[in-house]
Design brief:
420 residues; alpha/beta; eight-stranded parallel β-sheet; four-stranded mixed β-sheet; 16 strands
Length: 420
């Protein structure tokens, strides 16, 4: 997606976008540039950022001493309809109440990890019809105020006689509230025809496109880029693990074509998903060097495609840094700034005027946070919506000697506070 297409999308169900107007002060938070600041949030946005102790609280206060404050993460590639189904005996149930329960629980799990916005792929068609999509849309409504969930309608076939029903159902899915159209062209007998059909529906309704592909066929990628070029509000593909198995010159040419067409890529460092068969990782550095916008997602969350998937954006960033060779700042950007851009959401910075979508993680620097991201505080639309606290304790031992302990750092008292 090109930079000029990063426009916030209205709520798909017409919900009001105004946040709670009460004030929240985040005090003594550390930023990635080393500063320690106070951050005041009002009406779902950052009203002011000042040196620690300089801002007053008209409402609630959260002490973030010992925490690193970051723009919140976003999840650009979840599978809400199959999430948390790995331990289910027998076939996965697509009963609406089961899908809604799993989708809600998965979204809350990912919210606790720090993702305040999620894009969830949902299969439509076959015997399930639009039932799973309706269940995910119901989960989205129940999550209002906690996290923003967007559904991607994923039909199985779109070409030939067999694909006619899928095409009609895709249009119905958009009318129901799916905010994105997608699918897996590699699984259709006519991949180019599938892409053309999806792009046609997207153009009709003015919605983004998000397609599954392994990216192991340069000619197919070239055709996709040629068809997708210039489409607004944007085209995303992923996880593109097969692109990393191509010869370097072929992969470079494919990356150049994707960049020229403005096609973004979502990689899945934690593993694959049900939409693709091959495992591996997309060549993130090659894609970035070509100018492709690259975000990172979680993919399968404890379903048959990855029964141990965590759906944790900080783990995805950790893997991009430890295995993909990205600097910590770039790796976290892939699950925050770049993920939000791919999803068409407004940019977030810890600066006045930006949306109050924030994640505080215990730690002093980003590299340490990506390594040991245990305790977290999540802020969505200006209010704390999730907390995770982790405390590690050791038994008394002479061998422990005088080891450092997990304590809050000393800091000056708040202005006007009584002496200790």
């Amino acid at each position: 997606m090109s930079a000029d297409s990063k426009q916030p999308q209205p709520p798909e169900d017409g919900a009001a976008t105004t946040a709670d107007s009460t004030s929240l002060l985040l005090s003594h938070a550390r930023l990635t540039d080393g500063r320690t600041v106070d951050v005041r949030l009002v009406g779902g946005r950052i009203e002011a950022v000042g040196t620690a102790g300089s801002l007053t609280a008209a409402g609630s206060r959260v002490d973030l001493a010992g925490y690193l404050l970051l723009p919140a993460a976003a999840e650009p590639h979840a599978h809400a309809d199959t999430a948390l189904s790995a331990d289910t005996p027998g076939p996965v149930s697509y009963a609406p109440e089961e899908v809604q329960r799993r989708a809600t629980e998965a979204a809350l799990l990912q919210l606790g990890h720090g993702a305040t916005a999620l894009r969830a792929h949902v299969r439509i068609g076959d015997v399930q019809g639009l039932g799973p999509l309706e269940a995910v849309l119901q989960a989205r409504r129940s999550l209002r105020g906690l996290a923003d969930l967007t559904a991607v309608a994923v039909p199985r076939l779109l070409t030939g006689v067999a694909g006619a029903d899928g095409l009609a159902m895709l249009r119905d899915a958009v009318k129901m509230g799916a905010g994105v159209v997608g699918g897996c062209p590699d699984a259709d007998p006519d991949p180019a025809g599938y892409v053309e059909a999806v792009l046609g529906v997207a153009a009709e309704h003015g919605v983004p496109v998000d397609l599954h592909t392994d990216g192991d066929d340069p000619a197919r990628l070239a055709r996709l880029a040629a068809m997708a070029g210039g489409l607004r509000p944007g085209v995303t593909i992923g996880p593109c693990a097969g692109l990393g198995r191509l010869p370097s010159d072929a992969a470079s040419r494919a990356a150049d074509r994707l960049a020229a067409a403005g096609v973004a890529v979502v990689c899945l460092p934690q593993g694959g998903c049900g939409g693709t068969e091959l495992r591996g990782a997309a060549p993130v550095r090659l894609l970035r060097a070509a100018g492709v916008r690259v975000a990172a997602g979680g993919g399968a969350l404890r379903d048959v495609a990855n029964p141990v998937g965590r759906g944790d954006p900080l783990e995805a960033a950790y893997l991009l840094a430890s295995l993909g060779g990205l600097a910590p700042q770039e790796a976290y950007g892939a699950v925050s700034t770049e993920a939000r851009a791919v999803m068409g959401l407004p940019e977030v910075r810890v600066e006045a005027g930006f949306p109050a979508e924030l994640l505080a993680v215990r730690g002093e620097r980003l590299a340490g946070v990506l390594s040991l991201a245990y305790s977290r505080i999540v802020v969505h639309r200006g209010r704390v919506v999730a907390r995770t606290s982790a405390v590690r304790e050791y038994c008394d031992s002479a061998a422990a000697l005088d080891l450092p302990r997990q304590t809050r750092p000393e800091r000056p008292p708040e202005p006007g506070s009584p002496p200790a």
